[in-house]
Design goal:
five-stranded mixed β-sheet; about 750 residues; mainly beta; 22-stranded antiparallel barrel; single chain
Length: about 750
């Protein structure tokens, strides 16, 4: 793979660089991994824009491994569940498609962590959340410093810091469906050199019952090593840091779901045709950081490299081309023979009829991303006004190389086996991007008003090469500047108003033709905060005005082989809503209290004109139709009972129903076009999920905890994409023990 003149451009970037996003609480500014620190519970946050911090204490309350469940406590987050464990999350903010989290910017320790954030942003790799000590979410103008996806917002996952003193811990747990967790870390400082070593293993046998027997679970490993050296030169404190990480996964996962009737009778069944499904992944990261700090100046430099490889073998279709898997599972009576082969009730070789074999596709891909990023902030007074200037520059390269192939398998007596025929390569191509990103924002404080004015620039050179045909290639250049304005007006020491407007943008992939427009929107928000040290309340309204909404067909969301990796224009769309969050702690006695909180999101979407699209989630759309997989109402209520040595917590999450498709099937006889939308008119039903957790402190001997996910054992369809109905995770019990020193 061609890596490009990385070192030359890295040195140039270092020479011209500035910027770290502004930290909001001075006492926490020195934390290298955070990109923005939110102030303590008893302080009114005065930053403009919507920002949420989930601390280590909050993450430990439920001991979640699934980022979907973690983000249920953040307003404005919309999610499409898939495998029940959150192995490949689908996360959106403020109504953007949640598909593979491709329209939010995902960072780990302030650095892009997606396999190929510009060229192929679908996040098939996602860090293990078990080893995170905090999660930060930024939406609206608060996310203008982070890109390339700027319509929705940014998710920053924060790993454990190198300790100041000797520190370590273990966390082991076991539960139903073969669930096991083993997590340990140790860190110390030797001769001014600090280090941290951490490792996690997560595994489960899976909760689905595979026809013919077999595992439906996963096994994940994640290793982390950090080193740092601190010194002081003159008025500046310096921290030099090195981060090394490795992760791998084997999961027996498939895209194949069930017919609605089979789901109603046996929701956790998996058809025999998915017996050979397997995802294998491997990820490595190397990052070097330098942090410089004085009283008024902070500069962070990061040089990073990520490599990711994956191969996912799964059912793509059937050899007789009678219908797509979506159509077969939506209409099993119409495709009786095909359904019988998929379920193992009938062999592939049919006497007196055309045989039906299974087409198993392995999507083999290699990614890399690398770059240098320098961020800085400066505090100063000018014209009797307080200024906080934040600026930054990043040079980034990424690439995806696809080597997709298909093989023919036969169903015989309920078992699947390779027929031994040669591989047929379906996709051999490379997409790559070289990108410069810059931002500049000045926050000016005038009495009670803090006003932020900023701009972000994304300067991208993209390349596509069909490796089957040397003549099939293209290069394109995009230069875009994205302004933003935000503000916070402090009404009192306990309350204030926030407002903002900014330009949002999502790039198109290098392979797309010129008629695929960039996704662009103008995003507005207005709201207020209250915090008196006992009660916290925030209410924010938002309105995203898309001049063009863009969507892409992938294996996970439409499954139409002829359209894989193709993008579609959706035109003008409005998305608007309200986000609310409220929390209190009610004391019952000196050592007993009831903490409780409520997070609520209302979201409404509307196409602004009629549309005929070949995209499988749109079809023929009328003006006013809503976007798929976007619930109007979401709410999470947390309540607990906390004493000095023990606590009990319960989370109740509600999601209203949401459409599987925006429009309906259509045809144009003159143009010879026929578009089938098998899921038109179907909804993902509303659901309520209750999670329960409890813990007890053993003093010097650690802590024991127990939890139950999906306490009521609710069984609902969470998605019918791409092939049939799939359930969420059933009731799962687990018991764990933690010890820290």
């Amino acid at each position: 793979m061609t890596k490009g003149p990385f070192m030359q451009k890295s040195l140039l970037a270092l020479a011209v660089a500035v910027a770290i996003p502004n930290a909001l609480a001075a006492d926490n500014d020195g934390e290298l991994e955070h990109i923005q620190i939110l102030s303590h519970y008893d302080k009114l946050r005065t930053e403009a824009g919507s920002a949420t911090l989930l601390s280590e204490e909050q993450l430990e309350k439920y001991e979640y491994d699934d980022i979907h469940r973690i983000l249920a406590s953040v307003p404005g987050v919309n999610i499409r569940e898939e495998d029940g464990y959150g192995l490949r999350p689908n996360i959106g903010f403020r109504g953007v498609t949640p598909e593979r989290s491709k329209k939010i910017t995902i960072l780990e320790d302030g650095v892009l962590i997606g396999p190929s954030p510009y060229s192929a942003p679908a996040a098939y790799y996602f860090p293990v959340t078990t080893r995170m000590t905090a999660v930060e979410v930024f939406k609206g103008p608060a996310a203008i410093k982070y890109g390339p996806q700027t319509v929705a917002g940014t998710l920053n996952l924060i790993t454990r810091q190198v300790p100041e003193f000797t520190e370590g811990g273990i966390d082991i747990a076991a539960g139903s469906d073969g669930y096991q967790k083993a997590h340990g870390y140790f860190g110390s400082v030797v001769n001014n050199v600090g280090f941290l070593l951490e490792g996690v293993n997560l595994q489960a046998d899976g909760f689905k019952e595979l026809d013919g027997g077999g595992n439906t679970g996963f096994n994940k490993n994640d290793l982390l090593a950090k080193f740092n050296y601190k010194m002081r030169m003159g008025e500046f404190d310096h921290t030099f840091a090195l981060k090394l990480s490795y992760a791998d996964e084997e999961s027996d996962e498939t895209y194949l779901g069930l017919t609605d009737s089979d789901f109603a009778s046996t929701p956790y069944r998996r058809y025999a045709a998915s017996q050979d499904a397997l995802m294998e992944t491997e990820h490595q990261q190397v990052m070097f950081s330098h942090y410089l700090e004085s009283e008024d100046v902070r500069v962070t430099t990061r040089v990073y490299r990520n490599d990711y490889e994956r191969a996912w073998r799964k059912l793509n279709g059937l050899t007789n081309n009678s219908g797509s898997l979506s159509a077969i599972l939506a209409n099993p009576e119409q495709y009786a023979d095909e359904y019988a082969v998929i379920t193992g009730q009938q062999d592939s070789i049919l006497a007196g009829r055309n045989s039906i074999f299974l087409t198993m596709g392995t999507n083999d891909r290699e990614y890399y991303s690398q770059g240098v990023q320098v961020d800085a902030s400066f505090k100063f007074n000018l014209f009797d006004l307080q200024h906080k200037l934040s600026a930054g520059v990043r040079y980034h390269e990424d690439e995806i190389e696809r080597k997709h192939f298909e093989q023919t398998y036969a169903m015989t007596s309920g078992s699947v086996a390779n027929t031994g025929q040669d591989k047929v390569f379906t996709t051999l191509d490379t997409e790559s991007t070289d990108a410069w990103s810059v931002y500049l924002e000045n926050q000016i404080t005038v009495n009670a008003l803090t006003l932020g004015v900023g701009v972000r620039g994304e300067l991208m050179d993209m390349h596509y090469q069909n490796n089957k045909d040397a003549q099939d290639w293209q290069a394109k250049t995009t230069r875009i500047w994205l302004p933003g304005l935000s503000g916070f007006y402090k009404l009192s020491d306990e309350s204030g108003l926030l407002f903002g407007v900014h330009q949002g943008f999502v790039p198109s992939s290098p392979a797309q033709a010129d008629d695929i427009k960039l996704e662009k929107s103008v995003n507005y928000e207005f709201g207020g905060r209250f915090n008196d040290g006992v009660t916290q309340f925030e209410l924010v309204s938002f309105y995203n005005d898309y001049s063009n909404l863009k969507e892409s067909c992938s294996q996970s969301n439409c499954g139409i082989n002829a359209q894989i990796d193709q993008e579609f224009n959706g035109g003008e769309v409005d998305v608007y809503g309200v986000e609310a969050q409220f929390s209190q702690r009610y004391p019952l006695s000196l050592d007993l209290e009831i903490p409780y909180s409520l997070v609520y999101t209302y979201t409404k979407s509307e196409f602004q004109h009629a549309l005929r699209s070949e995209f499988a989630q749109w079809g023929e759309v009328k003006k006013g139709d809503e976007l798929p997989y976007l619930p109007n109402h979401q709410a999470t209520f947390n309540i607990g009972l906390a004493a000095q040595n023990w606590q009990l917590s319960m989370a109740v999450k509600y999601i209203s129903s949401m459409p599987e498709a925006a429009g309906v099937s259509w045809a144009d006889a003159d143009a010879g076009i026929s578009v089938d939308i098998p899921l038109a008119g179907k909804d993902v039903p509303s659901n309520i999920t209750v999670d329960l957790s409890a813990s007890y402190e053993l003093g010097d001997y650690g802590r024991v905890y127990a939890k139950v996910d999906n306490l009521l054992d609710e069984t609902e369809v969470v998605s019918r994409r791409p092939y049939g109905a799939r359930p969420g995770k059933p009731r799962q019990f687990s018991l764990g023990y933690k010890y820290q020193f």
